[in-house]
């Protein structure tokens, strides 16, 4: 092939290649154009389809379905906002308000989901029945929306489950509820307002929690080891004396402070919940029955089981006194069915205390008599028994124990359908003294040396003062010599009034004890001598201090209004504890002496009572 021909072929090939490149560019432009046309056609097709559905008779039905779905979304947004608000809320009252709004919003969300689901399902069924294909985008979107709505419908239920927003919110309220109930200032105005607000939200759920929390608070105040101690008949009361004293303090504190406060708190907290259902009373009853009071009452009953002894009687009197001091609070606080166990244990405790006291008290004379075979002190001194029994009887007749002992004896006799009189108590104390006197007589007779026997009786004479102190002590306190008013008339009236009160008191005691008889003449003589030596000098001294005032009023008959002269008083005292025949005989002599003394006073206006 010639060179020229090769050049020509190369030029032709180059020319064809250039044409090919130009044609390729043209084709590329056409392809892009076709793609644009295809996209436009697809969009136009979609627009045509939408327009066709929009202009179809079903478009209104579709739009009505969209409205409930939009409402669900708006409510859901509100729920989310309230949940975020709870996370940042620090105020209890505001927190409770937000919880309430959240609950309402969740309920609205659930009901809105039900409405939207009903619309969607009805719409899909309607469109399917009127020609909408199953794979149509609108139908597919509706089916997806159903799944989402069903998921949202479960929001309320999930909120109450562990970890849910309402579960956490209510748990926080219960925590705050517990914190307030454990606060020492629980009854403050601020705390009460918070409690009542929380209770309105928690409603019935708060009652068990309230009982549990307040019961725990009280139990912490009763964490005393002695309440679980066992007491048997072999235990001496002295071994548990400290525990008994602590028990008495705890009982008074329990009634006058703890349960008094607890009752007030129950009625304050639940006053708006429903008193017609006895909610405060039931709450208080449940708390009282489970917080330690029953253990206190049972320990008190166990005290009565320890070994019988005179010291035990005194301790039982203390225990009864404590229970009597809180009796009013008991009757007022512990009402209702839930307090029935408390009332039963209280009745059992009182019964044990009364029986324990009476059992020991009635046996005291026998216990003294059992000591008679013992030998007296060799030096003629006072036997320990005499001192102990005398001191013991003084305690029983003291202002602290006598009223309590009288009440216990009255209860005991009342249970037996018998009537109590104070003479029963005094008479039994006298029986104890009589046994002491008989012991002394026996011990005195056992002394071979007469002089030592007399020394022995003189040393032991002081125990007769016990009866005198009990019977005449308060009456003699009237005869206290004190300064009189400056005006002599008023002074005389005061003295005469005192003497009249003394005479009335003397007559009352004498009348009350006139039926008492001491058959042993030696013992009666000793008692009467003790009374005379105690009463008459005091009476005589009082008259001597004010005789001049009485003389000024009536110089001819000073002391004309006196019911008794000192001598007449002495004679009457000597008739105590005699038989009726002896009393009448002595009374005639006493009456004669009084007449003689009145005559002497009349004849000599300057007579003083020194001569009587």
UniProtKB/TrEMBL annotation:
Output a single Gene Ontology CC term carried by this record: exocyst
Taxonomy, superkingdom: Eukaryota
What are the record keywords, sorted?
Exocytosis, Protein transport, Transport
Transmembrane ranges, per UniProt, are: none
Domain (Exocyst complex subunit Exo70 C-terminal): residue spans on this chain = 246-464
Q: Which GO terms describe its biological process?
A: exocytosis; protein transport
The GO terms describing molecular function are: phosphatidylinositol-4,5-bisphosphate binding
Which purpose does this protein serve, as stated in its record? Answer: Component of the exocyst complex.
Q: Which family does it belong to?
A: Belongs to the EXO70 family.
Q: What protein name is recorded for this chain?
A: Exocyst subunit Exo70 family protein
Q: Which organism is it from?
A: Brassica carinata
């Amino acid at each position: 092939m010639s060179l020229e021909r090769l050049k020509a072929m190369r030029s032709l090939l180059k020319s064809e290649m250039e044409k090919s490149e130009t044609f390729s560019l043209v084709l590329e432009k056409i392809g892009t154009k076709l793609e644009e046309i295809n996209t436009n056609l697809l969009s136009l097709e979609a627009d045509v389809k939408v327009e066709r559905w929009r202009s179809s008779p079903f478009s209104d039905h579709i739009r009505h379905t969209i409205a409930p779905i939009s409402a669900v979304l708006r409510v859901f947004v509100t729920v989310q906002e309230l949940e975020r608000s709870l996370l940042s809320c620090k105020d209890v009252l505001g927190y409770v308000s937000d919880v309430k709004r959240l609950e309402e919003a969740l309920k609205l969300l659930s009901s809105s989901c039900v409405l939207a689901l009903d619309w969607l399902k009805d719409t899909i069924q309607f469109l399917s029945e009127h020609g909408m294909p199953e794979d149509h985008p609108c139908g597919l979107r509706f089916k997806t929306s159903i799944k989402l709505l069903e998921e949202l419908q479960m929001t309320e239920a999930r909120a109450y489950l562990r970890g849910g927003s309402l579960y956490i919110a209510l748990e926080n309220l219960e925590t705050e509820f517990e914190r307030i109930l454990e606060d020492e200032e629980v009854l403050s105005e601020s705390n009460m307002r918070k409690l009542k607000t929380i209770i309105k939200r928690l409603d019935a759920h708060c009652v068990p929690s309230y009982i549990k929390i307040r019961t725990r608070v009280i139990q912490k105040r009763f964490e005393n080891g002695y309440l679980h101690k066992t007491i048997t008949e072999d235990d001496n009361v002295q071994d548990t004396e400290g525990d008994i004293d602590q028990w008495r303090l705890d009982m008074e504190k329990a009634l006058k402070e703890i349960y008094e406060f607890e009752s007030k708190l129950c009625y304050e907290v639940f006053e708006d919940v429903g008193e017609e259902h006895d909610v405060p009373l039931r709450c208080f009853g449940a708390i009282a029955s489970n917080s330690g009071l029953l253990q206190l009452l049972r320990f008190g009953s166990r005290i009565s089981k320890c070994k019988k002894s005179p010291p035990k009687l005194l301790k039982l009197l203390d225990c009864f006194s404590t229970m009597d001091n809180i009796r009013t609070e008991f009757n007022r606080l512990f009402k209702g069915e839930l307090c029935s166990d408390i009332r039963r244990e209280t009745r059992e405790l009182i019964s044990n205390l009364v029986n324990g006291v009476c059992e020991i008290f009635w046996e005291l004379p026998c216990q003294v008599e059992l000591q008679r075979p013992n030998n007296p002190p060799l030096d003629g001194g006072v036997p320990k028994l005499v001192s102990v029994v005398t001191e013991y009887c003084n305690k029983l007749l003291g202002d602290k124990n006598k009223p309590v002992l009288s009440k216990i004896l009255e209860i005991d006799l009342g249970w037996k359908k018998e009537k109590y009189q104070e003479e029963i108590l005094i008479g039994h104390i006298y029986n104890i003294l009589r046994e002491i006197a008989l012991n002394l007589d026996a011990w005195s007779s056992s002394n071979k040396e007469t002089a030592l026997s007399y020394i022995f009786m003189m040393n032991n004479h002081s125990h007769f003062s016990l009866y005198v102190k009990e019977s005449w002590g308060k009456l003699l306190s009237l005869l206290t010599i004190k300064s009189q008013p400056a005006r002599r008339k008023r002074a005389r009236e005061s003295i005469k009034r005192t003497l009249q009160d003394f005479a009335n008191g003397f007559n009352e005691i004498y009348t009350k004890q006139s039926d008492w008889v001491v058959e042993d003449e030696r013992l009666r003589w000793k008692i009467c001598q003790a009374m005379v030596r105690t009463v008459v000098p005091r009476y005589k001294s009082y008259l001597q201090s004010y005789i001049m005032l009485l003389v000024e009023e009536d110089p001819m008959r000073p002391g004309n209004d006196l019911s008794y002269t000192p001598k007449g008083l002495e004679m009457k005292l000597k008739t105590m504890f005699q038989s009726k025949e002896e009393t009448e005989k002595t009374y005639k002599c006493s009456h004669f002496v009084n007449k003689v003394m009145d005559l002497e006073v009349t004849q000599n206006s300057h007579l003083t009572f020194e001569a009587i």
